[in-house]
Amino acid sequence: MSEQRPTVCVRVHDAVSDAQIAEVLHGLEEEGVPAEVSRHTELSPLTLAHDASRQSRLGVGIGASLDYLVITTEKLPVEQPYLALTLNRSADSDRAAGANAARLVKRMPLLDLAN
Fold first, then answer.
1. pTM, full prediction
2. Which among 20, 51, 111, 112 would be 20 to 30 A from 93, CA to CA?
3. What top-level branch of life does the organism fall under (predicted)?
4. 88 conformational bin, left if phi > 0, alpha if psi -120 to 50, beta if neither
């Protein structure tokens, strides 16, 4: 019996490279929360994140598109995400964003994103 393990779902627009989201995924990994990445044609990072949060057994999703990274929960409306920031502003910022998505799952205080 194989049950799907709980993950943070990360929905990424087709034009966003693996390298562009690598630090976000490292931040999740460092906090010990697994991620599942999928690629999509949807352009709206808000929609990507919202759909990812609804797909995630943990209720937290990340969307990456149009130079933005959006983190949200299944309980928030699509137009009001938990966090929205510029993707690839800095490696530290991207890593902290991934860590914060994991911390949201674990109900821990968030890291400062002012890098």
1. 0.94
2. 51
3. Bacteria
4. left
